[in-house]
Write a structure and sequence with these properties.
The protein is an alpha/beta fold and about 500 residues long. Helix content is about 45%, strand content about 15%. Strands 3-2-1-4-5-8-9 form a seven-stranded parallel beta sheet, with helices on both faces. A six-stranded parallel beta sheet has the order 12-11-10-13-14-15, with helices on both faces. A two-stranded antiparallel sheet has the order 6-7. The protein binds uridine-5'-diphosphate. One of its GO terms (molecular function) is diacylglycerol cholinephosphotransferase activity.
């Protein structure tokens, strides 16, 4: 498509992972409907997942383009088509994957040079550290996108800079982190950075930090009312602007946008939506643990048994390739779906998560606390059962449970490494899952108060994105910053 030449032109470069691409594509749509021109760079396999969404925006008159740059799999020794973290069969291939991502810099810069509309700014994932150099070459600001909340970014920053964990001898002892909202505690074992083996990524992490220091600002998918002062604190800590422009998922207003977001929905999805129509309002628990993890079949069986044991209606999302034949055999032997058909349904593959969470029959969300999922739960005003797996998910859990008081823990205390989920076997037992669900749906005072707080927060999320709301205003501030050029007052 040809882009208007006089506008602010924002270039989006997401990390090739669902939890990073989905929010950046939404963000591009938000800026495009706010008057900017948006270009999103990705690779062919990922473009196929987002093409329909972006084309629909184009039809609505938004100046937004999705540009495909071939992913150099062969050049780095990756099997062809391994273009998204959810396709990588093992973390052993991560170094090659990031190497291939680095090789996108040159063709992206070439493509940018050929455009009639010069870039005005780059918003890129924190992992795309080389885009800092690209921004300098084009003489434009770069804003870093963290695919999580400010609360968890600040907690990691404060742990590092205060060295508060140095004196803690046990990995399992919860400790307070200076400068964080009261009530927040974490253990050494739960700190982010344990997702992949440290030593492999020291150099990479250094580059990410260096590029973040050189950036002009930070853009997050969150909203001020959720962050309990963390935005101001992080802004002060890094001496840069921090803008919250979310929840970005709320830009998906019509059904087709909600239904097809991030990937084509599984063929089970339509049936699930029809089944939800037949269920009582706020009665169903939606259980989905994100796009990346692949739990051990034994752990997935515990989840299935826990859902059954709780007696609560449920939707259970099982990713393709998760548990594979061992889980499928168990489901068959147990006649699982047949036994639960009155009150439970399974989606195999990609669930239309935002559409499901927005359904009036959903009353709770069993989540791994990936930030997008957590925030989508907040948007739907849902209380949550929290089951963090790795990365910053434990900090996100603390925000949901201890600060916002809208969650109930299943009680897992130790993270697993991504790609090594099957090695740890069972971390959460059937009875712990059932107990957490029962606590969440309980009609006692605690349960009622939790539901009330969750509903209020959902309302605040909506208000934040409306005219005059905090996130709506931050979108305008980002655009003003870009238009004013580099002469910005310090934070
Ligand atoms: N998602 C979805 N359907 C699925 C699984 C995930 O739509 O079956 C979406 C979900 O709505 C969220 C994203 O994928 O936007 C996952 O991001 P998150 O940060 O929650 O977790 P991750 O997948 O990165 O662990």
């Amino acid at each position: 498509m040809s882009l208007p030449s006089q506008s602010v032109h924002i270039v989006f470069i997401p990390l090739l992972a669902q939890g990073h691409m989905i929010p950046l594509v939404d963000m591009a749509r938000i800026f495009a409907s706010g008057g900017a021109v948006a270009t999103i760079y990705t690779t062919p396999v990922n473009a196929r997942r987002f093409r329909t969404t972006v084309d629909r925006c184009g039809e609505l008159g938004m100046p937004i383009q999705l540009v495909e740059i071939p992913f150099p799999c062969e050049e780095v020794g990756l099997p062809i088509g391994y273009e998204n973290l959810d396709i990588l069969p093992s973390p052993e291939l991560l170094a090659k994957f990031y190497n291939a991502m680095g090789k996108l810099q040159e063709p992206i810069e070439k493509h940018l040079r050929e455009q009639t509309t010069a870039p005005s700014c780059i918003i890129s994932d924190k992992y795309i550290f080389w885009s800092s150099e690209t921004a300098q070459r084009f003489g434009v600001p770069r804003f870093v996108f963290h695919a999580t909340c400010c609360f968890s970014v600040l907690s990691a920053h404060n742990v590092k800079h205060s060295k508060c964990s140095d004196l803690i001898t046990s990995d399992m002892e919860p400790f307070e982190v200076p400068g964080m909202p009261k009530g927040f505690k974490i253990t050494k074992a739960q700190l982010p950075g344990t997702t992949v083996r440290q030593q492999d990524f020291e150099v990479f992490r250094g580059k990410i930090q260096e590029a973040e220091m050189a950036a002009q600002g930070v853009v997050l998918n969150s909203f001020a009312e959720l962050e309990h002062g963390c935005i101001e604190a992080y802004q002060k800590a890094i001496g840069k602007r921090v803008w919250c422009v979310g929840p970005v998922s709320l830009c998906n207003k019509d059904e087709s946008d909600m239904f097809q977001r991030g990937k084509e929905a599984s063929s089970d999805a339509e049936k699930c939506m029809a089944w939800l129509d037949s269920m009582k309002p706020q009665s169903v628990i939606y259980a989905c643990l994100g796009s990346l993890c692949r739990l051990a079949p034994s752990q997935l069986m515990e989840l299935g048994k826990g859902l059954v044991a709780s007696q609560q209606p449920f939707v259970w999302v099982i990713k393709r390739g998760e548990g594979d034949s061992e889980l499928e055999n168990w489901l068959m032997e147990e006649r699982f779906e047949e036994r639960v058909k009155e009150r439970g349904t399974v989606i195999r593959g990609w669930a239309p998560q935002v559409a499901i969470l927005s359904h009036r029959a959903i009353g709770g969300f069993l989540t791994h606390c990936g930030w997008n999922s957590a925030l989508e739960g907040v948007c739907s005003g849902l209380p949550m059962i929290t089951w963090p797996l790795f990365s910053e998910q434990f900090a996100n859990e603390a925000l949901l449970v201890d600060i916002l008081k809208i969650g109930v823990r299943v009680g897992t205390k130790v993270p697993m490494r991504w790609g090594e989920e099957t090695k740890v076997g069972i971390l959460v037992r059937e009875d712990e899952i059932a107990r957490a669900i029962d606590a969440l749906v309980s009609e006692d005072e605690e349960g009622e108060e939790r539901r009330k707080r969750a509903a209020e927060l959902g309302e605040k999320a909506r208000q934040a994105t409306q005219e005059g709301g905090s996130s709506h205003s931050d979108v305008s501030r980002v655009l003003q910053y870009i238009m004013a050029g580099p002469t910005q007052e310090a934070v």
